Amino acid sequence: MKTDVIEQSKTRVQVTVGFESSEVAESREKLVRDFCKQARIPGFRPGKVPQSIVEKRFSKDIQGELNQRLIRQAYNDGLLKAEIEIYSVVDIIDDKLVGSDTPEVAFVVDTQPKFELPEYKGLPVEKGDTTVDESEVESSLQRMLNQRAEFKVCDREAEKGDFVKCSYEGKIKSKLISEIAPDHTILGTQENTWEEAGSEDGMGVAAVVAALVGMKPGDSSKVDYTFPEDHDMEELRGKKATYSVQVHEVRQKVLPEINEEFLKSVQAESLDDLKGQIRKSLEARKAQEVQNELRKAVSEKLRSSVEFDLPESAVKRETESIMEDFMQHQMRRGADPQAIQEAAAKITEEVANTARERVKLDILIGRIVEKESIKLDQNEFSQAIMQQAMATGMPVDKFVNELKKDEEHIQAIKNRAVFSKALDFLVDQATITEKA
């Protein structure tokens, strides 16, 4: 067996492992003997089937198994001993392995990037404020009340904050917007939809929502609206539209009274106790947000502190993964397939850059994990599995039973958890200052 290494690029090599014809013949002979021992053919006792019949009956199986055995041998005794730091095997070329005068198998391999690990302890990052002021508590309490509000039918003009059942139809000159933008029905024609009168951050057409204030059931109105110049739909940019609006029903939002019954429903003993719970929840959320910001900051500092060539296969794989996630998200939103393809084409470069950043960080974190011997203990691994089960919405015991059948999934969960632990390690070691 002999090994030749040809460099194809800075991060990719082709390793060709050649066999002597006698080695291939010896391996084939041994394989045929194995087949003879196990062959079951009517008219012959087990293990007594003539070799010529076995070779004829199982020729394709023998050739396929011989290929696999020789590839495994070439991998273990050739590729792994070639003093190459392998990142991943990209391709296996075995068309000259069986039936050739010079039997060989070639492995196309991406190699581990060569670089000096930069200083990763003491990375300078800024920390955001985790203080929760009284106005944030009051806003959160107001949201809680709004979520439990009742909507009572009233026969009067709509006021800001009322919910209005209405219909509207938009036109640009004489053409219906529903025909111009059929995939954006909320901009065109709506029958019996509910809108919050006067809302400044609603999903509906701003001019329609504003016009509802002062209208009562049975009222009709026309209102003009000019689409912004940077609107998502090119056909609508800067165009003036006219909407016909009709009101069917007005409902007043009535907030619940903060009494003993309400406090009991939210498991609070008093208003002060409820506000205290809200404050703790907001503080925990802010602390998590700050931690996430710090993780992102140390990641960016680490990534920008060194340059090296990235494995082509890893970047390609990550690019495809990001693009697939994007397209599936668009499909779940009900976007048109043609529009999805056009949108994907526009973000190709951005996706490729993101993929390179992710791969680079993965490699850096991997080196730090190895150097610092960062591992998961049993409790951390159990928590990672529980979090994954919760993310899928599957009961933990059922998720664990399914997981036992998928070793790759188990390893993926471990890898993500170790990556997360390594980022927390970098944050713990960072030089942190308070943001101004």
Number of helices: 14
> What is the CATH C level class of the largest domain, in words?
Mainly Alpha
Give the ordered list of helices and strands: EEHHHEEEHEEEHEHEEHHHHHHHHE
Distance between the termini: 66 Å
Structural domain tally? 3
Rounded to the nearest angstrom, the radius of gyration is 33 Å
CATH superfamily of the largest domain: Trigger factor, C-terminal domain
Q: Give unreliable regions as ranges.
A: none
Shape: elongated
- Secondary-structure arrangement, i.e. CATH architecture of the largest domain: Orthogonal Bundle
Give the class from helix and strand content and strand pairing: alpha+beta
Number of DSSP E strands: 12
How much of the sequence is in beta strands? 15-25%
Largest sheet: 6 strands, antiparallel
CATH topology of the largest domain: Trigger factor, domain 2
Percent of residues in helices comes to 40-55%
> Mean pLDDT, rounded to whole units?
92
Structure report:
By secondary structure, the protein is of the alpha+beta class. The chain folds into three domains: 2-111, Trigger factor ribosome-binding domain (Alpha-Beta Plaits); 150-254, Roll (Chitinase A, domain 3); 275-434, Trigger factor, domain 2. 49% of the residues lie in helices and 19% in strands. Strands 6, 7, 8, 9, 10 and 11 form a six-stranded antiparallel beta sheet that branches. The chain is elongated and about 100 Å long. The two termini are 66 Å apart. The model has no long low-confidence stretch (mean pLDDT 92).
